């Protein structure tokens, strides 16, 4: 009976927001959740999104159900954005694209596909990774293991370890890769390293599985941030790619994203798509329409599309400025000679500080700065004005 159910632990990321809300200190700072804030630390709705919504309202569109696979116009533009509209894979209809409930729901559809059609196959997840990856594969009953990724000595990529672990995994495993702006470390392979990773994956007959949650948001360029995925796609191998519009369009609560399965023939893509729909039907029946229309309208209209790119560059630029300021503040305050330049090398919304769990606790308990316990801070939740304060908090936590 329900009486026997025990209390679940708070979510390691979303639980931080709850702790932040409960803190009454005026200096408090929420660097836990990866959501963009303005310099005034307020949530931000993109102007281009407001415009697209107004156009939708003016048109008086209805709220009928979408097909199981989602809005056709969205599915088209989302694949175009990811692979490039001129990509031959698109013309050859080798990609099965199905709208999902943002990145998470799209990953979950892919996990169910793996569970159903690749029984026993393992998913390799980077160590560390976004915490929800493990939950998703656990709930889908897909076995997973980790590959080395982060090297605490250099606060950089353990490339040798990564390649060795991918090589060692059973043939035909799925290798989960972050398309850009690796969460939580902010450390991405170089183009050269991506080629070598692709070589090993092909050698071992593994299937690459990209999670693309930050396209355009990492560098400010949609194309640059899709380079890793396109490099794999150009090799003509099978590929899975989950997409999210939470960050790059600020559509967090609209739950808009997609799963793309690159196949080696149009025929296989049609069959895969039919099975993805079969998986989606009992999960959520059909996906929500509002965010899908926003994306389709923005990408499908050259003026709005350009406005989006400008706003995305502005958001990525603000994060880069904050990153620089934090580095400057830390370097100026730290008399120990510690090299903080790793902060500048990381990209995207997050910075992996190297703070331990105990030091992270000091950040929240003494300084009212909330962050994940793995030492990750979201720079998107930081303002230039708060960099000095944060640097003081980090200095105190690091050196005491
Ligand atoms: N993957 C990664 C790596 C993420 O960081 C996130 C968001 N934090 C997601 C997927 C999914 O987010 P959403 O479900 O909001 O698209």
Short description:
GO terms for molecular function: L-aspartate:2-oxoglutarate aminotransferase activity; pyridoxal phosphate binding. The chain is of the alpha/beta class and 400 residues long.
Describe this protein's structure.
The chain has 400 residues and is of the alpha/beta class. Helix content is 46%, strand content 14%. It has a 7-stranded mixed sheet, sandwiched between helices. The chain has a two-stranded parallel sheet with strand order 1-12. The mean pLDDT is 95. Bound molecules: 4'-deoxy-4'-aminopyridoxal-5'-phosphate (PMP). The site of 4'-deoxy-4'-aminopyridoxal-5'-phosphate (PMP) has 13 residues, from helix 5.
Characteristic key phrases:
400 residues, alpha/beta, seven-stranded mixed beta sheet, two-stranded parallel sheet, 46% helix, binds 4'-deoxy-4'-aminopyridoxal-5'-phosphate
Estimated structural class: alpha/beta
Sheet of most strands? 7 strands, mixed
What would you call the quaternary organization? single chain
Counting DSSP E segments of at least 2 residues, the number of strands comes to: 13
Which kinds of small molecule does this entry bind, naming each only once?
4'-deoxy-4'-aminopyridoxal-5'-phosphate
Q: What is the helix tally?
A: 16
The string of secondary-structure elements, in order, is: HEHHHEHEHEEEHEHEHHEEHHHHEHEEH
> What's the N-to-C terminus distance?
49 Å
How much helical structure, as a percent, in the residues?
A: 40-55%
What is the arithmetic mean of pLDDT? 95
The strand order across the widest sheet is 2-10-9-8-7-3-4
Shape: globular
Report strand %.
Answer: 5-15%
- Unreliable runs: none
Function: Important for the metabolism of amino acids and Krebs-cycle related organic acids. In plants, it is involved in nitrogen metabolism and in aspects of carbon and energy metabolism.
GO molecular function: L-aspartate:2-oxoglutarate aminotransferase activity; pyridoxal phosphate binding
Organism: Erythroxylum novogranatense
Subunit structure: Homodimer.
